[in-house]
Structure to design on (269 residues):
């Protein structure tokens, strides 16, 4: 039984053979991974050093019973509830400029799903010069303004999602609906990239 | 840098400016290179390169701010 019965054989082959990196398994990363499994992606490299806590449950693809578990392990469990036959490489580490290129070396596309602006910039600085396609997010905190979250193609290998202004450092909380909108944009961009569709 | 004014398309709008590097132009417009993605002439430009690449007549320059949240 396949999770996505709406694909052509060609589409299924492309999506199942791609390996996607998920940098951060929080609000963005957990939801992007969930959407990509539903879309037909089967191979992932997922990286996060954190554990699930109660404050995550407003937006992240975890459950109350998973509080205290490592995010990469909890996410792997949840993704396999959708599709058991997944190829998951899990790293319970903090990504830095020293390890990020090695960790994602085998990935076709990397999804930036960090919290901090510094980490987002670190990832872009490390991966874009290598020509590695990256889908990243900037500006998704708070409520409302759904249609201000947009997808931009920047240069050949970067897709940027967000409103570029709603910053959690400005007192705006990360809230589930807006984070999910941005995560859906990121997931849609990954699939579009792979299938050669317009973003 | 000295010389004739340069006309670029900045954030979708035709803009005339004094000759400058991309980095200097952005700094004058309050954009810190390390806190934004710079797209110049259709390619992503690193902050390091922006400091030395000059603005060219007719070039398109777009800036995307990077803010926290995820």
């Amino acid at each position: 039984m396949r999770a996505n019965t709406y694909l052509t054989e060609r589409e299924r082959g492309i999506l199942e053979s791609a390996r996607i990196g998920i940098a951060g398994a929080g609000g963005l990363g957990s939801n992007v991974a969930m959407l990509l499994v539903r879309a037909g992606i089967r191979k992932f490299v997922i990286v996060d050093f954190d554990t699930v806590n109660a404050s995550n449950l407003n937006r992240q693809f975890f459950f109350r019973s998973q509080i205290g578990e490592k995010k990469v392990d909890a996410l792997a469990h949840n993704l396999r509830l959708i599709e058991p036959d997944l190829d998951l490489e899990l790293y319970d580490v903090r990504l830095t400029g020293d390890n990020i290129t090695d960790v994602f070396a085998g990935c076709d596309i990397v999804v930036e799903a960090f919290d901090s602006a510094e980490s987002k910039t670190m990832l872009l600085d490390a991966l874009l010069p290598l020509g590695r396609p990256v889908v990243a997010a900037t500006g998704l905190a708070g409520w409302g303004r759904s249609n201000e979250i947009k997808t931009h193609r920047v240069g050949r290998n970067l897709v940027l999602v967000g409103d570029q202004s709603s910053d959690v450092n400005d007192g705006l909380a990360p809230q589930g609906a807006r984070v999910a909108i941005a995560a859906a944009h990121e997931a849609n961009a990954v699939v579009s990239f792979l299938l050669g569709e317009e973003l | 840098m000295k010389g004739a004014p340069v006309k670029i398309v900045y954030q979708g709008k035709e803009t005339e400016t004094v000759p400058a590097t991309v980095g200097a132009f952005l700094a004058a417009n309050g954009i810190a290179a390390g806190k934004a993605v710079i797209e110049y002439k259709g390619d992503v430009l690193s902050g390091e390169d922006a400091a030395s690449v000059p603005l060219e007549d007719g070039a398109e320059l777009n800036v995307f701010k990077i803010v926290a949240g995820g």
Summary: Chain B has a mean pLDDT of 93. The longest strand of chain B covers residues 60-65.
